[in-house]
Amino acid sequence: MKKGLIISDTHMPRCSKTIPPVLSKYLSEVEIIIHAGDFQTYDVYENFKTYKEIIAVYGNNDDKRLKQELKDKCIFTIEKIRIGLYHGCGVFSKAKISLSKTMSVFKDEALDLIIFGHSHKPFLKRVNNTTYFNPGSPTNKRLEKFYSFGLLTVADNDFTLKHIFYEHKNG
Fold first, then answer.
1. For 101-157, where are the E strands, in sequence order?
2. Which of 82, 88, 169, 170 could make an S-S bridge to 116, C-beta 3.0–4.6 Å?
3. What pTM does this model have?
4. Which pairing describes strands 130-134 and 113-116: parallel, antiparallel, or unpaired?
5. What H or E segment, with its residue span, contains residue 102?
């Protein structure tokens, strides 16, 4: 069994100077961090790397160094589960645009799970044989009621996903 923390759109240090306490708690309970872009700075990426192994892509608000080191999309496997990772693009208030673009980016791939960000809108939906997951944002909820991130558990050639929602990023 493998547990992963799924995050996107941390936008640090602009939206938070530190990792929210609730997120820190879960960092100690997982084996891997999956980040769908918009760290904002390379230093934030380096900070997350000190906690656990990290698989990440860059987002539209990431600095030049992140865009040089990371890819805009990637495909990886955790215990036979094929996963696509992409930040997304489009109008942030239109989650359907981000999903549509994400679907088109991976249209030729047979994937079990596609993780994306950009909209800051938590999302979980199965389309055909693929599950689409957006963790939301742990530091910038925009028009959402809660801050959020996700948890992935992979075991026995299957996986489960869960959103973690909270009201206050610093409490």
1. 113-116, 123-127, 130-134, 147-155
2. 88
3. 0.94
4. parallel
5. helix 95-105
